[in-house]
Amino acid sequence: MPTGVALRDVRRQLFDAADRILLRDGPSGLTSRAVTTEAGCAKGVLHRHFDDFDAFLADYVLDRVERLVPEAAALRSAAGTGTVAGNLTTALTALFGSVAVAIIALITFRDELRARLRHTWPAGVPVLTEAAEMIADYLAAEQELGRIPAGAEAQTLAAMLIGTGHLLFADRTGTPPDEEAVHRMVGSVLRS
What average pLDDT does the segment 104-109 reach? Predict the structure, then answer.
């Protein structure tokens, strides 16, 4: 790879390259060489911006968690519109249809990454924890509007939706569940 080539927004280019590799090759295919090759830059570029590869991965995961913020706001603003099951189906399909499932596998796959993430993320699994909070916040808003029973536990329902949704989408090599399958799952959890 040529050196001395000016790159714009190196972090974004490297993170986007990591997305593509994770989706295509899974966590075992994600190496510093693979990332820089996919991004079209010299390997040294990654090491000029990050202490080591696990520091890159930790920043990458946290960056992808931050991407859930607008999704959470959109879901929260959907409270009172459409159907609760429909809104949750859309949110879960978008969440698990993204690179999120592959990031969860990456966190599980790399011990050093998990250790580094514990410094800024002391509990739970990044992406899943944030997604559960997003769903619980939405359910609480729907509960305030009377569209979810007053006695329902929003946090528990959110955890059930995230866990079951993750199981539906976990096989990244197979065909992802269709919208109807996700909607059935959401309806089952909401009725529980």
Answer: 86
